[in-house]
Amino acid sequence: MSANSAVLQALIFDVDGTLADTERDGHRPAFNAAFREAGLDWHWDEALYGELLAVTGGKERIAHFVARHRPEFAQRPDYTEQVAALHKAKTRHYTQLAASGAIPLRPGVARLLREARVAGLRLAVATTTTPENVSALLVPALGPEAMARFEVIGAGDVVPAKKPAPDIYLWVLERLGLPATACLAFEDSENGLRASLGAGLATVVTPCDYTRGQDFSGATAVLDSLEGLAIPDLRAWLSAAAAPV
User: Fold this and answer.
1) What phi and psi, each to the nearest 5 degrees, are found at residue 203?
2) Are residues 14 and 92 in the same domain?
3) Cis-peptide, bond into residue 164, ω within 30° of zero
4) Boundary of a domain, candidates 99, 116, 148
5) Can you tell me the distance from the alpha carbon of 39 to that of 228, in angstroms, rounded to the nearest whole number?
6) What is the pLDDT at residue 92?
7) Higher model confidence: residue 189 or residue 24?
8) What is the predicted pLDDT for the residue at 5?
9) For the segment 193-213, what is each residue's pLDDT rounded down to a tens digit?
10) Among 15, 135, 227, 230, which one has the highest count of C-beta atoms within 10 angstroms of its own C-beta?
């Protein structure tokens, strides 16, 4: 490891649950709206949705639900197309919710993003949600220039293997041109943490309502929120994480 490799240069953010409590306020209601629109009698209540969150990726989550609870639906000759159509409708409902301002950023997020830019840190996103969902969430919350704040946005199907595979983080690191030791990741879930750790990233975890109580072993820090978190804290944590044991 070079002398400068542990100097903090970039922050990489997960989106759902990390930047905003999107699962509770956006994705679950949007899935249910898509099901109603398609004439299906499916309803994901909070308990069921909490279980389904073990599967990352919207289309993958629908397929998992079908396999467990509606196996007859998988016998349809147009099953793959139907799953894709449901997910597309769900994305439309989600973006409408987000555009209405119904999904606020979590406490401390907007401030941390501003302070990171002032400090000269590069910003990136590593998420399994679609690019449309990222834009729909961030633009109403941060303004029309929101997406331009992030140098790299790894989202949706840019890699085939979803979290907990590390692929999305490796994809982002490659495009940033930085080693993992120069970056700090932000996650909210065990699957996300496994992905970031698999890419060699020190990681700050801020659990949301659906992920509290999960296993965050290996995290650099576990916080209730990003409120009060300062850039010097992040630099110190990265240096500590890189220090020989």
Assistant:
1) -140, 135
2) no
3) yes
4) 99
5) 46
6) 94
7) 189
8) 53
9) 999 999 999 999 999 988 999
10) 15
State residue 18 phi and psi, 5-degree precision: -95, -55
The amino acid at 118: V
- Rounded to 10 degrees, the C-alpha dihedral 178/138/221/157 comes to -60
User: 128 and 204 share a domain?
Assistant: yes
CB 83 within 8 A of CB 63: yes
* Residue-wise pLDDT tens digits, 73-117: 999 999 999 999 999 999 999 989 988 888 999 999 999 999 999
Amino acid identity, position 139: V
Residues 125 and 216 in one domain: yes
Other residues' Cβ atoms within 10 Å of the Cβ of residue 230: 12
CA dist., res. 163 & res. 178, Å (int): 20
Which amino acid type is present at position 46? E
What was the pLDDT predicted at 186?
98
Judge if 193 and 235 occupy the same domain: yes
Based on the number of CB atoms within 10 Å of its own CB, is 195 exposed (0-12), middle (13-18) or buried (19 or more)?
A: buried
Selection from 76, 54, 98 nearest residue 189 by Cα: 54
Structural domains of the chain, count = 2
- pLDDT computed for residue 28 by the predictor: 95
Position 72 in a domain? yes
Q: Which CATH number does the domain housing residue 28 bear?
A: 1.10.150.240
149-182, pLDDT tens digit by residue?
999 999 988 999 999 999 999 999 999 999 999 9
Q: Which of 50, 80, 99 is the last residue of a domain?
A: 99
Position 130 confidence tier, pLDDT thresholds 50, 70, 90 = confident
Instruction: Name the residues annotated as catalytic.
Output: 14, 16
Residues 51 and 114 in one domain: no
CATH of the domain at 155: 3.40.50.1000
Six token digits for residue 77 = 């000759």
